[in-house]
Amino acid sequence: RDPVGSNNHFAFESFVDEVAFSTGMDPIDFRLQYIGNERDRELVKILAEKSGWQKHTAARKQRRGDVAIGHGVAFVIRGPTRVAMFAEVEVNMKTGKVWAKRMVVAHDCGVVINPELLKMTIEGNICMGLSRALMEEVTFDKSNVTSVDWETYPILDMTQKPESVEVVLVNRQNIPPSGAGEGSMRPITAAVANAIYDATGIRMRQAPFTPDRVKAGMA
User: Fold this and answer.
1) In DSSP terms, which residues pair with 90 in a beta bridge?
2) Residue 73 near residue 88, CB atoms below 8 Å
3) Which of 203, 206, 200 is CA-nearest to residue 60?
């Protein structure tokens, strides 16, 4: 789902965070300053409220023992559908393992026809997108693909799913439905990367955010 969008917006929305911090601004405030469409502004404000966003202008590097805790956001548009996303991550500073503990999604795809099915679609996208952001990677040598099974190409399982996925649906009854199959895939990698930065001060430049890459960043 959304095969190119999550990669591109990992770069775009990570860079937006960097620019926000470099100018001494909170990431939410920075986005709101430059988003002109009131529909989009409302969605970002809803996300900030529902996630309990705490303003900050630098990586906070909050710790609980060996675990660093961080929050990150991303905002994307896919066709007429808009999605704002919050991620809370825990980073084990010894192992480098990242757990996306809590995800909050503010979702606007026009009129909502079947809210329960829509929520389930978004929840499925969250799990699939986190799997790509944290684990999934094709590997190869000079002649063959070497990621050939679930050991060499791991995916997110039930033990690694978020503790909480909160979906806020914005029902635009005067706007035709614009689809939800891929929109919430797009901001996941960026939101998680920005949360890792808040937790550790490390900017991840390459996905997936495997323990080895996180540890290399810390080194």
Assistant:
1) 69, 99
2) no
3) 200
Residue 149 pLDDT level (bands cut at 50, 70, 90): very high
The whole-angstrom separation of Cα 187 and Cα 130 is: 10
Q: In what order do the strands lie in the sheet with 67-78?
A: 62-64, 67-78, 81-92, 98-108, 164-169
- With 90 as the cut, is the pLDDT of residue 164 above it? yes
What's the confidence (pLDDT) of residue 1? Answer: 85
Q: Please say whether the beta carbons of 192 and 89 come within 8 A.
A: yes
Query: pTM of the predicted model, to two decimals?
Result: 0.96
